User: Fold Germin-like protein from Lactuca sativa.
Amino acid sequence: MKNLIKLALKSSKVGLRYQFPLRILKEMSSKFVLLSVLALTFSYLALAYEPSSLQDFCVADPNSSVKVNGLTCKNPMQVQAEDFFFSGLHLRGNTSNQLGSKVTPVFATQLPGLNTLGISMVRIDYAPWGLNAPHTHPRATEILTVLEGTLQVGFVTSNPDNRFITKVLQKGDVFVFPVGLVHFQRNVGNGYAVVIAALSSQNPGAITIGNAVFGANPAIPADILAKAFQVDKSVVDQLQSKF
Assistant:
């Protein structure tokens, strides 16, 4: 009997010994789950490039003098069907330029009803061997589909890999360019090429690499670019004269 009592007391002490750590672990686990949920929530908010609309629509008012991050809303009672309409993507763009390409945008400035909706689109026309020069969209992912022609497309991953990912597309093919990455399209066929592209911002922005680096206003000092590109300053001077 005494042995049974001793065993019971020993078991009780062991249980008490582990009960406290287990309680702490349970509390820590609950806190970890809560922190994880909060972290995911704030990550989602941080990745939301544009605020969601708090009403049915916020048609841009081009005549407003109010400056906000985006465009101010037109009086909803004055909104008409034309505010949600754009015509012109059936027209071929003028590709008579040095690059042989033409971008026709449909952003909130062209289609006021896009304001706060977080989307836009473009039509891009390419003459034979025309190029949409390497550029980035700082605020949008781009997905395009080929309507006519044959295109080589590609983008470059971020440092340190700088991996070049490229593919040749035919009519009906679709390709996506991740947000912020340098990308391009080039017509590699003998005829004209056309694409329609959608972007995840009402104002995706475009930074053409050549224009930004060699055509900055005021100009980036030539010695800085010469060192960055590891070329002679005369090469930089020549490139800057092109832009």
Notes: The chain has three domains: 1-47, 50-205, 208-243. The radius of gyration is 29 Å. The mean pLDDT is 85. DSSP finds four helices and ten strands in the chain.
